[in-house]
């Protein structure tokens, strides 16, 4: 009997409910695995229907179509003579489970349900599935008639079993089970299982990849073994981007890995490994017969070998070094891949972005440019699917993208919407960046390919209607108006820009005699969403937002990266300029309004506060208690108290804005996204009377006595409690 096994895992760009496309990609991965000599192929979690089906998991149609796809897989000649491990939902005893279905040569060997469900962050698996709560227990599952007729089986094993071939033993984990302190691979290793498999739908977050890799290395460092990790990739229909990283490890070393970000719909990773290396490792480091006290796993035996008798000349894979992307590279690659998936699957013809000349909109523009860079590289590398998609998007079957700037001109339209409060500096910065990335640029000056957009006429028209009804004309604060007038005048400008953005997105190509419409891109960062420092239904209201989950500090670092990597020198002036909304009157032609002055704190401070609120689960009092120590070199306790109170007041006044915020790429684990990641009320008592009184008591008990400037211990009717 041989000792070397060739195993395959993969990353697939599956799409929720796209059963036809999902089947095609699964079969393609199996075909590639067989071509490389693999005898076992592992796929991502719920790959048949797609992980992001959400409440469609409740529908009987979803279960039916999954079994129809499974039938097609069983019938396909491609699945013969290779153990196939696919993911799909299965209902057993009227309970819905997230399962692995393992089959070989038209016979189902085992259905393994997920035991530890993901119910944190963006995951809500308990909403749709139940965990299998009987460790090491297997029972019979009655197959649907369509599968019975094909396989000749009436029932198959269902439960926490393992697969025993003639030469080794394999056990399954599913996604979150790896991250759990009671991971099944620990007990499986002690029971002699040599190959662990993990099918995941693990989504991207900045600075997360190393945690995933370290967990997999640790899983086989402790007790030896081979570990296969499969993951979904791409946008399967919502805010998440699944970032691949399929990999194979043995005895604590990564020996094969796939890309974290790519435009390949199907990526297969294979490795040839020596089972004797596992046995030798375990022989020295662990003694299962002394340490394992649980009931043994039920072994489902199959008359099949993963190895060949004559494998002496077959080379084995050696450890590889995993070089992780920097956060700036992750921002450049992840959101760009997500945008491409969204564009090609939406049926639209490109993107439109209101480009203000600031850090946020410039970051969105650079991500689109990065998308074009990746598309051109993929076509150059022979990716026929990307080429086909590009030709369909631009409506030209002969088109072949070679230069990112030229491709940007086909896919990307930017516009600078000037008002009387706009400065020449921001106008020029936006124009220069648009020229460098090659976008179709809509500007106030009229040139051959430019349109004239100035919002002043629309703003005056709106105010004229208001004046006609009320007999009053609001004024900016700089001209003697009240705070409420000042805010309303800023908001009307912002909302008119949103209306114009959608108008041009719908009709811009029509005006040029071209088919299709454009997707409007937003550009509000995660910190602005956290504090509500944006107008509800302004230019932040778009179809999608690639930077809505990224902090301002990370975006600045990303733009510095773009200066070096893409030679976009126009970004230097953008980085040097203070962030400003440019919604209040200029003074001597210069901007006096700045974001940080409006917010009452810096973006750096907001990043700290945002992480404490979400990741550390801090309310006002706990946050204050932490910040008086971490900020002690910069602020006194009373100053910290003022900042904490100011933040929570802004946050609670503006939380309602998160209910309508544009769907954003999820990148930060302190995102305030109200859809399913950060579930909070949106109508607060903004006085926070009890909480702020606790803070005041702490400050009073210290040696420093000072005036806080804010009194929140009783209701003040003059305090604004709702912002628009």
Automatic annotation (TrEMBL):
Cellular component GO terms, alphabetically? cytosol
Q: In which pathway does it act?
A: Cofactor biosynthesis; NAD(+) biosynthesis; NAD(+) from deamido-NAD(+) (L-Gln route): step 1/1
Q: Which UniProt keywords apply?
A: ATP-binding, Ligase, NAD, Nucleotide-binding
Swiss-Prot/TrEMBL GO biological process terms? 'de novo' NAD+ biosynthetic process from L-tryptophan
Q: Which PANTHER family match?
A: GLUTAMINE-DEPENDENT NAD(+) SYNTHETASE, NH 3 /GLUTAMINE-DEPENDENT NAD + SYNTHETASE
Repressor found in the keyword field: no
Q: What is this protein called?
A: Glutamine-dependent NAD(+) synthetase
What is the annotated quaternary arrangement, including any partners? Homohexamer.
UniProt xrefs under Gene3D superfamilies: Carbon-nitrogen hydrolase, HUPs
Q: Which InterPro entries match?
A: C-N_Hydrolase (IPR003010), C-N_Hydrolase_sf (IPR036526), Gln-dep_NAD_synthase (IPR014445), NAD/GMP_synthase (IPR022310), NAD_synthase (IPR003694), Rossmann-like_a/b/a_fold (IPR014729)
Report the sequence similarity comment from the record: In the C-terminal section; belongs to the NAD synthetase family.
What SUPFAM superfamilies has UniProt attached to this entry? Adenine nucleotide alpha hydrolases-like (SSF52402), Carbon-nitrogen hydrolase (SSF56317)
Q: Which HAMAP family match?
A: NadE_glutamine_dep
Q: Which parts of the sequence belong to the CN hydrolase domain? A: 5-275
* Matches recorded under NCBIfam families: nadE
GO MF annotation terms:
ATP binding; glutaminase activity; NAD+ synthase (glutamine-hydrolyzing) activity
Q: What is its EC number?
A: 6.3.5.1
Kindly state which reaction or reactions the protein catalyses. deamido-NAD(+) + L-glutamine + ATP + H2O = L-glutamate + AMP + diphosphate + NAD(+) + H(+)
């Amino acid at each position: 009997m041989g000792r070397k096994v060739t195993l395959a895992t993969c990353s697939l760009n599956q799409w929720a409910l796209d059963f036809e496309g999902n089947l095609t990609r699964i079969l393609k991965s199996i075909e590639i695995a067989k071509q490389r000599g693999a005898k076992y192929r592992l796929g991502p979690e719920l790959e048949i229907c797609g992980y992001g089906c959400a409440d469609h998991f409740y529908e009987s149609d979803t279960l039916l179509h999954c079994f129809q796809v499974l039938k097609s897989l069983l019938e396909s000649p491609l699945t013969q003579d290779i153990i196939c491990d696919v993911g799909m939902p299965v209902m057993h005893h009227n309970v819905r489970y997230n399962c692995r279905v393992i089959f070989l040569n038209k016979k189902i060997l085992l259905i393994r349900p997920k035991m530890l469900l993901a119910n944190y962050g963006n995951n809500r698996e308990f909403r749709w599935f139940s965990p299998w709560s009987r460790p090491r227990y297997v029972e019979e599952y009655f197959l649907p008639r369509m599968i019975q007729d094909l396989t000749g089986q009436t029932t198959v094993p269902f439960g926490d079993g393992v697969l025993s071939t003639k030469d080794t033993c394999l056990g399954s984990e599913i996604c979150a089970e790896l991250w759990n302190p009671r991971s099944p691979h620990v007990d499986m290793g002690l029971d002699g299982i040599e190959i662990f498999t993990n099918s995941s739908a693990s989504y991207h977050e900045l600075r997360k990849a190393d945690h995933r890799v370290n967990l997999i290395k640790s899983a086989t460092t402790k007790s030896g073994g081979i570990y296969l990790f499969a993951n979904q990739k791409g946008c399967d229909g919502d805010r998440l981007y699944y970032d691949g990283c399929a990999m194979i490890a043995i005895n604590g070393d990564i020996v094969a890995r796939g890309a974290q970000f790519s435009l390949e719909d199907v990526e297969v990773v294979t490795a040839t490994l020596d089972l004797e290396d596992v046995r030798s490792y375990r022989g020295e480091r662990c003694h299962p017969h002394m340490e394992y006290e649980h009931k043994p796993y039920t072994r489902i035996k199959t008359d099949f070998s993963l190895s060949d008798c004559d494998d002496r000349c077959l080379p084995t894979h050696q450890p590889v070094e995993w070089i992780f992307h920097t956060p700036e590279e992750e921002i450049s690659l992840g959101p760009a891949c997500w945008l491409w998936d969204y564009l090609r699957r939406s049926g639209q013809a490109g993107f439109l972005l209101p480009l203000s000349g600031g850090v946020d909109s410039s970051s969105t523009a650079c991500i689109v440019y990065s998308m074009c860079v990746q598309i051109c590289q993929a076509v150059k590398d022979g990716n026929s699917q990307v080429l086909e998609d590009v030709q369909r998007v631009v409506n030209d079957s002969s088109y072949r993208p070679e230069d990112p700037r030229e491709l940007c001109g086909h896919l990307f339209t930017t516009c600078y919407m000037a008002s009387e409060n706009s400065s020449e500096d921001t106008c020029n910065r936006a124009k220069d960046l648009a020229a460098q990335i090659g976008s179709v640029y809509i500007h106030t000056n009229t040139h051959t390919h430019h349109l004239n957009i100035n919002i002043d006429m629309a703003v005056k028209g709106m105010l004229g209607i208001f004046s006609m009804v009320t007999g009053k004309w609001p004024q900016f604060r700089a001209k003697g108006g009240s705070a409420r007038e000042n805010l309303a005048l800023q908001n009307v400008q912002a909302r008119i820009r949103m209306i114009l953005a959608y108008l041009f997105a719908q009709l811009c190509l029509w005006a040029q005699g071209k088919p299709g419409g454009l997707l409007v891109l937003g550009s509000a960062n995660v910190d602005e969403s956290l504090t509500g420092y944006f107008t509800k239904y302004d230019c932040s209201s778009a179809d999608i937002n690639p930077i809505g989950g990224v902090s301002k500090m990370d975006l600045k670092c990303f733009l510095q990266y773009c200066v070096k990597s893409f030679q976009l020198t126009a970004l230097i002036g953008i980085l040097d300029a203070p962030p400003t909304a440019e919604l209040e009157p200029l003074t001597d032609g210069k901007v006096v309004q700045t974001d940080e002055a409006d917010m009452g704190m810096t973006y750096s401070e907001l990043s700290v506060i945002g992480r404490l609120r979400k990741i550390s689960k801090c309310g006002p009092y706990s946050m204050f208690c932490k910040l008086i120590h971490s900020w002690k070199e910069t602020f006194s306790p009373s100053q910290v108290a003022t900042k904490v109170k100011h933040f929570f007041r802004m946050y609670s006044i503006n939380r309602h804005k998160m209910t309508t915020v544009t769907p954003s790429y999820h990148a930060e684990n302190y995102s305030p996204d109200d859809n399913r990641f950060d579930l909070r009320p949106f109508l607060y008592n903004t006085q926070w009377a009890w909480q702020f009184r606790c803070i005041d008591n702490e400050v009073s008990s210290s040696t420093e006595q000072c005036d806080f400037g804010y009194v929140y211990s009783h209701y003040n009717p003059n305090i604004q409690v709702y912002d628009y």
